[in-house]
């Protein structure tokens, strides 16, 4: 890859270390290995405005593009966002000599960035975190309708030099929609995360495991939908098993959680590590959707038996990595005794 390439990262500067952050970290490590500079897309209004004030040429250059894209697909909020993000992008492209771009595609600003790059006639590769039109409950507020958001997103994929999907499902969907240059770049924990996961695997060999762990970010619409359904299933069963639910935003689910579920909400990295060391198993309930659950891959690295309810397609084929698709909680309770007290085999480095 040419060194005159710029990686535009969506979540690398996120304060919450959710799955999007970890995917961004993985892509930043790949970029660094190729000598590519990573630039974080600003999340604050002040930074965007300050760039426009310092670069009036960029502010003027983006106005006709914002109007053109706006007439095609944007809400008024989206037009304003295009002026801000597009002006910032124009300034960065001028500053770095109009390089090729590794673009992380995310809802709203990520899709807009892709449309602006198309208008600039800049060559770019797309790295979608999700296929956004496949995510139920996604709030694409920068676009005037779901149809407009879909068309704008597809324009990005079809204009990209190549699309690097995060799962085989995502890649297959795009190919079915006549996006030809698609390949899969699966999620793997960044090197900076792997040592901690291997340490969890080592500690699990002698830990006193108790209870089933449920992890998820309730801010993500399909994840919250899955968690709510899982809590209903747990309420209906009488296994006597105990569960712990943790993750960003999960505290809002405490009022509907049955007594057998301890809801911790957002917790520190250290507490997540302790929970993973002590869990008998990890339980995931995710409706079929796009992307890839980073916690499935992390649990595999950490040697945690993982069970997935909800027909989540990406979990299929991971049986040899300790991830099993199940159709009911009864399957989980029947399978668990074979793991109790078992020593997880070492994963090769």
What does this structure look like?
The protein is an alpha/beta fold and 349 residues long. It has 2 domains: 180 residues, Rossmann fold; 146 residues, 3-Layer(aba) Sandwich (Rossmann fold). It has 12 helices and 12 strands. Strand 5, helix 7 and strand 6 form a beta-alpha-beta unit. Helix 2 packs across helix 4, helix 4 crosses helix 5 and helix 8 packs parallel to helix 10. It is elongated and about 65 Å long.
Q: Which stretches are poorly predicted, pLDDT < 50 over at least 5 residues?
A: 339-346
Strand content: 5-15%
Number of helices: 12
Assign the CATH topology of the largest domain.
Answer: Rossmann fold
The radius of gyration is 22 Å
Q: How are the strands of the biggest sheet laid out side by side?
A: 2-1-3-4-5-6
The CATH class assignment of the largest domain is: Alpha Beta
Kindly state the mean pLDDT as a whole number? 91
Number of E-state strands: 12
TL;DR?
With 349 residues, this protein is α/β, with parallel strands linked by helices.
């Amino acid at each position: 890859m040419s060194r005159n390439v710029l990686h535009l990262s969506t979540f690398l500067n996120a304060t919450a270390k959710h799955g999007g952050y970890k995917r961004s970290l993985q892509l930043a490590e790949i970029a660094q290995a190729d000598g590519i500079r990573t630039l974080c897309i600003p999340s604050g209004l002040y930074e965007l405005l300050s760039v426009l004030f310092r670069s009036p040429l960029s502010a003027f250059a983006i106005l006709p593009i914002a109007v053109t894209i706006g007439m095609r697909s944007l809400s008024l909020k989206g037009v304003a966002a295009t002026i801000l993000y597009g002006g910032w992008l124009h300034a960065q492209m001028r500053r770095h000599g109009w390089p090729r771009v590794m673009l992380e595609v995310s809802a709203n600003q990520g899709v807009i960035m892709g449309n602006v790059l198309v208008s600039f006639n800049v060559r770019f590769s797309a790295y979608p975190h999700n296929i956004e039109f496949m995510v139920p409950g996604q709030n694409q507020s920068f676009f005037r309708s779901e149809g407009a958001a879909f068309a704008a997103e597809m324009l990005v994929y079809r204009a990209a030099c190549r699309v690097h999907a995060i799962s085989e499902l995502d890649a297959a969907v795009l190919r079915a929609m006549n996006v030809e240059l698609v390949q899969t770049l699966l999620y793997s924990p960044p090197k900076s995360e792997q040592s901690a996961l291997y340490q969890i695997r080592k500690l699990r060999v002698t830990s006193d495991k108790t209870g089933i762990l449920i992890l998820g970010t309730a801010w993500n619409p399909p994840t919250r939908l899955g968690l709510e359904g899982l809590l209903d299933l747990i309420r209906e069963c009488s296994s006597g098993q105990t569960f712990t639910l943790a993750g960003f935003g999960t505290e809002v689910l405490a009022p509907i959680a049955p007594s057998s579920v301890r809801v911790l909400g957002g917790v520190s990295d250290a507490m997540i590590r302790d929970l993973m060391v002590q869990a008998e198993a990890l339980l995931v309930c995710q409706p079929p959707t796009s992307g890839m659950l980073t916690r499935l891959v992390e649990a595999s690295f950490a040697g945690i038996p993982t069970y997935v309810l909800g027909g989540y397609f990406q979990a299929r084929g991971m049986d040899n990595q300790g991830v099993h698709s199940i159709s009911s909680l009864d399957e989980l309770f029947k399978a668990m005794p074979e793991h109790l007290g078992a020593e997880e085999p070492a994963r090769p480095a």
